[in-house]
Each structure stands twice: as structure tokens, then as C-alpha cells.
Amino acid sequence: MAQYMNRMNMPDSRVLQFHTGQVWVTSRGCLWRVERIEGGNAVLRRGFHGTGRINRKGVYDVGRWRLFYDPEYDDVVPKWHR
Description:
The protein is mostly beta strands. Helices cover 5% and strands 32% of the residues. The protein has one domain (13-72). It is built from 1 helix and 5 strands; from the N terminus they run αβββββ. It has a 5-stranded antiparallel sheet, with no helix packed on it. A hairpin with a 2-residue loop joins β2 (31-38) and β3. The mean pLDDT is 88.
């Protein structure tokens, strides 16, 4: 039987490193979507939908960023970002 995935049973690895499709919020409030992982770097695009400029960070370099949205564990997209 498959276990229902939500934020309550999310493994630590999902919040300690970048994964494709996640949206992170910086300490200043900017949203960044993880577009892909290349080698040891995450390719990020600015904005919830990832239509802004490109930035690269280390996969484990989450620093003071907070996970805003994870498509594997969040069943509802925030309504102002649909």
C-alpha cells in the first residue's frame, strides 16, 4: 500500500538539497524554481513558474533558503501561483 506523501512525512533530504521542480524562497523573499541538476550544481530560474533569469548554486547550498513548494509532497499549488 502506497503511503500518502505530504509535508508531514517528507524526508530530510528533500529540504537539505535542491531537487528538480522544487520552488525555494530566499531570505529576501524571492522565489526560485529548480530547473535541473547538472553535475553538482542546481540550475535555478527566478519566479514560481521559472520564467526569469538563470542562476546556478551547489546542490547542497540551500543556506538560509526555505522550501516553498515541492511537487512530490505538496498536493495544492498556492492559488496566487496557478
